[in-house]
Amino acid sequence: MRLAQALFAPRAVALIGASGDPGKNTARPQRYLRKHGYAGRIVPINATRDEVLGERAYRRLADVPGEIDHAFIMVEDVEAALEDCARKGVAVASIYANGFADAGVAGAEREKRLAERARALGVRLLGPNSMGVIDLPGRLALTVNAVLEADALPAGRTSLVSQSGTMLGTLLSRGAARGLGYAKLISVGNEADLGVGELVELLVDDAATRVIALFLETVRDAERLARAARSAHAAGKAIVAYKLGRSALGVELARSHTGALAGSDAALDAFFRDCGIVRVDMLESLIEIPPLLAGRQPRVLGRTPKVAVVTTTGGGAAAVVDRLGLHGIELAGMHDLTMAGNAQGYRATLEQLLASADCDAVLAAVGSSAQFHPEFAVEPIVSARRTEKPLVAFLTPHAEESLQVLAGQGVPAFRTPEACADALAAFFAWRAPREFGDGARTDSLIWQMRVPDLVRAPSPNWFAVLAALGIPVVEQAIVQAPGFVHAVPYPVALKRLGVAHKTEQGGVALDIRDAAELAQHARRMGDERLLVQRMEHGLAEAIVGYRDDPVVGPLVLVGAGGTLAELYQDVAVALAPVSEAEALAMIERVKGLAIVRGYRNLPRGDVAALARAVAALSRLALVPGRPLREAEANPVIVKREGVVAVDALMALKE
Amino acid sequence: MRLAQALFAPRAVALIGASGDPGKNTARPQRYLRKHGYAGRIVPINATRDEVLGERAYRRLADVPGEIDHAFIMVEDVEAALEDCARKGVAVASIYANGFADAGVAGAEREKRLAERARALGVRLLGPNSMGVIDLPGRLALTVNAVLEADALPAGRTSLVSQSGTMLGTLLSRGAARGLGYAKLISVGNEADLGVGELVELLVDDAATRVIALFLETVRDAERLARAARSAHAAGKAIVAYKLGRSALGVELARSHTGALAGSDAALDAFFRDCGIVRVDMLESLIEIPPLLAGRQPRVLGRTPKVAVVTTTGGGAAAVVDRLGLHGIELAGMHDLTMAGNAQGYRATLEQLLASADCDAVLAAVGSSAQFHPEFAVEPIVSARRTEKPLVAFLTPHAEESLQVLAGQGVPAFRTPEACADALAAFFAWRAPREFGDGARTDSLIWQMRVPDLVRAPSPNWFAVLAALGIPVVEQAIVQAPGFVHAVPYPVALKRLGVAHKTEQGGVALDIRDAAELAQHARRMGDERLLVQRMEHGLAEAIVGYRDDPVVGPLVLVGAGGTLAELYQDVAVALAPVSEAEALAMIERVKGLAIVRGYRNLPRGDVAALARAVAALSRLALVPGRPLREAEANPVIVKREGVVAVDALMALKE
């Protein structure tokens, strides 16, 4: 409790390095705290002055009488300032300076030392490279962010944790322009100590916060954030994230396909989904979605979501509906009304739809009246009796005033058709955090002991690992020159050992009918030892993969097999382990596996067996020590009955 | 010339059905014309009054002294008003009334009669269901659109043709709020007479128009629009379109795969691209892109476009760059500068990048200074020496004033990272209109005569049509029970005749090794007549299709073959005919065909032969009378050398 208070509601703040030149960034916190009416004590610390911007200043923190809860360190010598803070009993220090993990290897080392020292001293750190903390209802503007130049900023019940200091200002500024206010805003900087996860924990306990918004560039503390997300869900608070890096190419040169397919953004997508964190795709959705999430719980519809539309502007409504269609959301009906002289009827239609079982959300699209008659235009929307079902508004013209009226009444309203559709799609994709572990408990635990031994063998047999996990593997044998003798029934396949991308390298021969043919192929391949496998035919090929992601931890992946599927990046990813039911739901999301789910008149494959294999591989997440970095069964042949893995590839952690 | 003048710059307008109640929609044109300073003569026509809103009114158009160039018909009895207009020698009548093609079959009939009568009378029509015409520099506000309630609207050099009357107001209103003005704005309504194509022609000739923006729900006059687009290109004027209906499910139950794959939006996409029309994906891009297009020509880079970024806000720039990456655009470098005290350096960096050969556009991302110091923040951007290379701005905070300064100086500026990336992507995808016909001229024209006979045969042989076009077809024969005799060398495939989706129906047997095996399969299939084909093996399967689209005309399609490709909708579509070079460029756009273009160590397929087949099928567009609705070679086997079509399906027009 002391942490939250020192961070968000300090009774006294020290501004270490406060400048007397009002044009300087380092003068801002003092100016902003005063401007926005901070009620606590402000203590500028300046090495050469006894007065700063008309207020009593001190040369050293040690000279300050009384207690200081929170220090904002704006000097270069952060290390010395930290020692001063510790001596003074300061609970939290926010650090503006950069030159730490943001500045190469030496900076990262410096940051590590700083964090260790702070831990030893018992001082909590925000930053370094943080723009500070804002609490609008509490009138705390302990920040260098220029957005505080604004005379008044609306307070709201959304709190923001941002890895970008400048974007914190952007979101605050854009929200304010249309009446969407914030409660607390925290610029986390490099997260040397206080990270996104812990801040979310604090916000879960914060009575002023109803929705938690995250602007992310990466995730540094996935485990803690995952726990915090579960607490948020339990407390009835929604979390929504906008994350950069969706298009970043996977830089890691992955040895297996799984590495490339479960690229970092897909991994984070799985992470957000499985943690119950709503993910938006557009910047303004992050600002506009909170009223849609506030007070609502994620729910599973079990069918395609349907949105009913009430509109005075056909074209404007169509712009949203068209976009909803791209997200796979259906139209439940379009009601074209004129607002003029018919506010009653308009409201009645809204209420009727909100009460109806035929749609899952109601969209009111308002035309030019929103610009010229704000109160009148949005009155029926604002006054409609609310239900659990969302009622959202899209205003087609430039209509800031109408947007403000709607924001003031807590009605989710959107400035662009794209953000409106993005937010509704994110809302419908929202799921409660997944509970883990059930899949493992129902299963024998023998493999948990066997797998570590198998993978640590001098030259491990990856097929044996699959088999130990409970995944059917093809009947096979290793053959030796010159006889290439084996007992696998013909027809067989012959493969070179330890060669990646065998097919493209001429390292595979299929449909070998007899020993003579086998010998011929074996001689061509030229190796002393080769792998013979029973020739398997099925209805489709799948890839089943596992990856211990450095950011979000163990993941499991299923996709359509073969080169085409790789080209289309057609895979579903989830945090591991998954149960068989969860694996089935993943398989449903893979387009290319439609061919075994009952497509046209194609025969159905054993999707349940595939799901068992996915769940089985995902249990690598439960192996003590998690020795594997990646594991892959590829292809897995999906048959009418059963599946069988015909190739396996794994990589140990370095 | 008379048409453009009567439409946009009438010396006198008659308002037929003008209301004396200023609250009514039908009073608006008179109010707006006065409010916005129309200099011509305004003549209200009202059946019961001699004065309307303080101006001399007439009971009947016939009573009006002097000439009337343009009448705005707001009465229900449009037909009678049209006769009055004709008698009065009115050149253009804009019709507000709806109840025509917008209202079912009877309405469509009424519209047809109205258009025919207008043609006979020599009166040109805008509408019905039109909200009228606006010419901002000319101060003509002949419209019922409430956006004209605004006191002042900025004039610009972008003209808008809109199929949605309300969205015309939306675009005008949103543009005005940030200083992006328009020249002419036309609400085309149902296009009974004057259509989008003809209006674009008028705007190509309009000296006040530099960029033509289209808000489309459909395309009703593809051929004329295509011609107009070519004229616009020749005149150095860009056309940009936003079109609804991207997500509409193809309603037509197409007999072939091509019908479904070349769904109407893909067809329009091909149409826009091949006509040199820029297509934007987001509503605000339509407003914001014109300064990016004005005075520029489409060009082919021949490599991935690269954008250099100069920024004062890392997070804001990253939001755009991330999105650009999703569009396949690369970052040429990120220059993180502070604006403070360094406007000179900022401008120098911009100018250096604009002159550099290492990037194709420069993006300036501006942070909070754009909100609080507009002139200062955008000064270096506005004053940087312009080159051919685009310089665009993205402002992260709410910064309407800065946006207005940029708009005033013609600098493309964007309010959201998504619209910024969308516009840049659309700009880089922009191509000059394609020239047609070369592909045909280089080829023998014999097939032009043979194909009509072949397709009109009592039971046409689609393989023969393919062969006539110059597409290699598999060696084959029709066999008869009970002997099933043929001369095709084994191994062969056996197929049932006239069955769609044969594979899924058990209507195909592959790799038949001898006559005995053949007879066995033939008996199982049970038909009297069956098709035997030489068994072909290749590196990949492709689909090559043709479709005479009811909206945009003949299209050609190429995609990866097989069920998977169908699931992924992985096809490239272009207006037909295409040359071999154009077909090659289409093949490049198909992800799944990467496997024959040189992927990893996979052997290369004969992509040139596939391109020849695509170009050949596309020549169906040149067959006199265009008897075919759809044609498809699927699969086409792509071999190391050559391609071969092993199935063909065609459908005649009804």
Topology:
2 copies of one chain form a homodimer.
Chain A: H1 2-8, E1 12-16, H2 28-35, E2 41-45, E3 51-52, E4 55-56, E5 70-73, H3 78-88, E6 92-95, H4 104-121, E7 124-126, E8 132-135, E9 140-143, E10 158-162, H5 165-177, E11 184-187, H6 196-204, E12 211-216, H7 222-234, E13 238-243, H8 257-261, H9 264-275, E14 278-280, H10 283-288, H11 290-293, E15 306-311, H12 314-326, E16 330-336, H13 343-355, E17 361-366, H14 369-372, H15 374-383, E18 391-395, H16 400-408, E19 413-414, H17 417-429, H18 438-441, H19 446-455, H20 462-469, E20 476-480, E21 492-496, E22 508-512, H21 515-525, E23 529-534, E24 540-549, E25 553-560, H22 562-568, E26 571-575, H23 580-589, H24 594-597, H25 607-618, E27 628-638, E28 643-645, E29 648-652
Parallel strand pairs in A: 1-2, 1-5, 5-6, 6-7, 10-11, 10-12, 12-13, 13-14, 15-16, 15-17, 17-18, 18-19
Antiparallel strand pairs in A: 3-4, 8-9, 8-11, 20-23, 21-22, 21-23, 24-25, 24-27, 25-26, 27-28, 27-29
Structural commentary:
The structure is a homodimer of 654-residue chains. With 654 residues, chain A is an alpha/beta fold. The first copy, chain A, is 36% helix and 22% strand. Chain A has 25 helices and 29 strands. In chain A, strands 9-8-11-10-12-13-14 form a seven-stranded mixed β-sheet, with helices on both faces. In chain A, strands 24, 25, 26, 27, 28 and 29 form a six-stranded antiparallel β-sheet that branches. In chain A, α6 (196-204) runs parallel beside α7, α15 packs parallel to α16 (400-408) and α19 (446-455) packs antiparallel against α20 (462-469). The model of chain A is unreliable at 249-256 (pLDDT under 50). Chains A and B meet through α5, α12, α14 and α22 of A and α5, α12, α14 and α22 of B.
